[in-house]
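Run log // design_07
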């Protein structure tokens, strides 16, 4: 099994969603390394704040789907979450390297393989935690190569309050005047779901100097439609 090459992508930058989650278990170090050794521009992941104020990587709020355990991340301590081992993509094979990564491990892999870090700030966080994440990444020398994304608009507002030049994209499942005005007010780019994306939307955003990322496209047919619409980035589980 391998990634699917999008040969006709032109200038579009490809982003590996949760690492190459079409090959390796999502949001694990193996998934990030799988993206690192390929031609992706960036590696996307999700970061949560644990109950004891630390940072850990996982998409879901609860470990039921990825690990079969009823553990709410934001109600659990880091050490307990870190001790969890998950099954491979076949749902059967246990692997010692399938654990929830730290923020630092994710950034280290992006840095090692010279990939843009596309970091989703999951759920609304305290302002100080958003700043702490940014400081960790700055101390690791990868702030200029990190794009912060979030559905929680306040996370990006707080990020920009302290780091006005930070690269950031607002995640949205819809596009309307309210979304556009928020993006413009806070000098953000757009990170839109595939079903709300049209050439008209992309043209409107580009006319205002806003870059457009689209998620999550896993077929060449949809990628061609996004290319025709003029997007800047495509986020995918398997397309390269």
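design_07 sequence
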């Amino acid at each position: 099994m391998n990634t699917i090459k999008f040969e006709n992508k032109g200038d579009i930058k490809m982003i590996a969603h949760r690492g190459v989650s079409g090959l390796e278990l999502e949001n694990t170090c193996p998934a990030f390394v799988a993206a690192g050794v390929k031609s992706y521009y960036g590696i996307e992941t999700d970061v949560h704040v644990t109950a004891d104020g630390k940072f850990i990587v996982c998409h879901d709020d609860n470990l039921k789907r990825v690990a079969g355990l009823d553990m709410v991340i934001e109600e659990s301590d880091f050490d307990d979450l870190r001790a969890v081992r998950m099954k491979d993509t076949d749902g059967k094979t246990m692997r010692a390297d399938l654990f929830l990564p730290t923020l630092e491990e994710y950034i280290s892999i992006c840095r090692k393989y010279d990939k843009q870090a596309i970091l989703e700030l999951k759920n609304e966080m305290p302002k100080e935690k958003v700043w702490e994440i940014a400081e960790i990444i700055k101390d690791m020398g990868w702030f200029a190569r990190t794009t912060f994304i979030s559905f929680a608009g306040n996370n990006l507002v707080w990020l920009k309050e302290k780091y006005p030049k930070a690269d950031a994209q607002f995640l949205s499942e819809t596009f309307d005047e309210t979304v556009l005005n928020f993006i413009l007010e806070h000098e953000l780019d757009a990170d839109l779901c595939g079903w709300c994306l049209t050439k008209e939307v992309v043209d409107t955003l580009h006319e205002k100097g806003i870059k457009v990322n689209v998620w999550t496209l896993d077929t060449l047919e949809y990628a061609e439609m996004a290319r025709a619409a003029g997007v800047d980035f495509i986020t995918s589980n398997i397309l390269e």
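The chain has a mean pLDDT of 97.
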